């Protein structure tokens, strides 16, 4: 199997570590190992004593016990730890889908949600977000997309790249649809916890539906992408069995120091969420003012969750705009061509501490381009 290149990741591999300013990243501000250890001052001894042999196949039991606390109805043995969420997506697609199957996927979306399946010979029906309605989904459309070959529905809540978070009614309708048709509900929840208002948090899909697979990671909600720690949680013994067996051909087991540090992070989930959401809220205030000033150039649907939003450019193509912005200011935005969604939008990230400074650079650039066009 040779999936098509992951366009967004190829773009980041080229620019993420060379661009002077990042304005499209989805992971919030991270921290050093020292800062994480400070949440548990005696934990340095445990890190020093961490044994560097292989760890248990599905993930260290102590870590899985911590992860289980993030759910209502999930036990430690209903979790498989992976190397980032990405490995788990690849494993799910390879183990639970087969050539000739059909799958419904929320679009625009995160490319590995559909490209891996397509490479396996699975046909993908896009369930399209409606920009005019704040990038929302209409569950009534699902009945028009389902076929006798449909095996899975992939959703991403909160969503990359639009920041959309369904209401509880819409979420319940999605689960009811999946249950009615006996579908696997692969629910990418790597941004779960980053609701801008805590009251908007939805249940984890695995807590409410027996054929749901909830995908979690420390990369986004906790801001710790360098730990490369993801997991799936599910009540399905079949999924657990198949994905465990497949992992033998991927990373076998996880990194012992990462698992140790990850358990600390999970114990302090609430504090890490508070740290990230307060930064996000402050940045959103700055963005509101920015978009009010530039209403002639951009259309912005303020997300209710997560670290990213999808902005329409009213005047120019996204690829050209991003290329010129990068060349003239060193600011990196992400054009929608890289998420297979035309050339009219850019993905903007607002989870980093320096976002207001980077936005000020864009502001000055826009003013300068208006002046130079006028003169
Ligand atoms: C929706 C979504 N799922 C999965 C991933 C992959 O996460 P990880 O870095 O933990 O592999 C990302 C990363 O951007 C993402 O945005």
Automatic annotation (TrEMBL):
Pfam families: Aminotran_1_2. InterPro entries: Aminotransferase_I/II_large, PyrdxlP-dep_Trfase, PyrdxlP-dep_Trfase_major, PyrdxlP-dep_Trfase_small. Residues 46-350 form the Aminotransferase class I/classII large domain. GO terms for molecular function: pyridoxal phosphate binding; transaminase activity. The keyword Transferase applies. Keywords: Aminotransferase, Transferase. This is Aminotransferase. It comes from Caballeronia zhejiangensis. The lineage of its organism: Bacteria, Pseudomonadati, Pseudomonadota, Betaproteobacteria, Burkholderiales.
């Amino acid at each position: 199997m040779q999936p098509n290149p992951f366009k967004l990741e190829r773009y980041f591999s080229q620019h993420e570590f060379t661009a002077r300013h990042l304005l499209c990243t989805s992971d919030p501000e991270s921290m050093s190992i020292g800062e994480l250890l400070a949440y548990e001052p005696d934990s340095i001894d445990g890190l020093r004593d961490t044994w560097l042999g292989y760890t248990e196949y599905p993930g260290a039991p102590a870590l899985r016990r911590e992860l289980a606390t993030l759910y209502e109805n999930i036990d430690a043995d209903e979790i498989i730890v992976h190397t980032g969420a990405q490995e788990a997506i690849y494993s799910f697609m390879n183990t639970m889908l087969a050539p000739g199957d059909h799958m419904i996927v929320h679009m625009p979306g995160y490319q590995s949600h559909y490209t891996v399946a397509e490479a396996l010979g699975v046909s993908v029906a896009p369930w399209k977000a409606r920009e005019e309605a704040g990038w929302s989904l209409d569950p009534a459309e699902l009945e028009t997309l389902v076929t006798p070959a449909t095996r899975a529905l992939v959703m991403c809540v909160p969503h990359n790249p639009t920041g959309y978070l369904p209401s509880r009614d819409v979420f319940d309708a999605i689960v009811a649809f999946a249950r009615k048709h006996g579908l696997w509900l692969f629910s990418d929840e790597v941004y779960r916890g980053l609701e801008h208002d805590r009251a908007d948090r939805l249940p984890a899909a695995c807590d409410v539906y027996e054929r749901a697979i909830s995908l979690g990671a420390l990369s986004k909600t906790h801001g710790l992408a360098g730990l490369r720690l993801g997991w799936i949680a599910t009540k399905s013994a079949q999924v657990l069995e198949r994905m465990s067996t497949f992992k033998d051909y991927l990373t076998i087991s996880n990194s012992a120091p990462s698992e140790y540090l990850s358990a600390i992070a999970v114990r302090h989930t609430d504090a890490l969420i508070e740290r990230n959401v307060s930064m996000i809220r402050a940045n959103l205030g700055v963005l509101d003012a920015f978009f009010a000033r530039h209403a002639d150039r951009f259309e912005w649907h303020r997300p209710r969750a997560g670290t990213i939003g999808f902005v329409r450019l009213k005047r120019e193509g996204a690829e050209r705009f991003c290329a010129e912005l990068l060349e003239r200011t060193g600011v990196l935005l992400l054009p929608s061509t890289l998420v297979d969604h035309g050339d009219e939008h850019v993905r903007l990230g607002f989870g980093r501490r320096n976002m207001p400074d980077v936005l000020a650079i864009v502001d000055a650039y826009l003013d300068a381009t208006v002046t130079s066009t006028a003169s």
